[in-house]
TrEMBL record:
Keywords from the UniProt entry: Transferase, Ubl conjugation pathway
Cited Pfam families: UQ_con
Domain UBC core: 1-43
Name this polypeptide is given: UBC core domain-containing protein
Organism taxonomic ancestry: Eukaryota, Metazoa, Spiralia, Gnathifera, Rotifera
MF terms (GO), sorted A to Z: transferase activity
Signal sequence, renumbered to the chain: none
InterPro entries, sorted: UBC (IPR000608), UBQ-conjugating_enzyme/RWD (IPR016135)
Length: 43
C-alpha cells in the first residue's frame, strides 16, 4: 500500500470472445527512470 512504484491492474476479456468471462491480473512496476524507461509488467 505504501509503494507508489507498483500498481495492480485487472483487465477483463472482451465480449463475444473466448476470454469474455476471464479476469487477468498484472503487476505494473514503474522504475525510477520512468517515463524515460518504460514500466515492467509481471503476469
Amino acid at each position: 500500500e505504501n509503494r507508489m512504484d507498483i500498481i495492480k491492474i485487472l483487465i477483463t476479456g472482451p465480449d463475444s470472445t473466448p476470454y469474455s468471462n476471464g479476469c487477468f491480473i498484472f503487476d505494473l512496476y514503474f522504475p525510477n527512470q520512468y517515463p524515460t524507461t518504460p514500466p515492467s509488467i509481471c503476469l
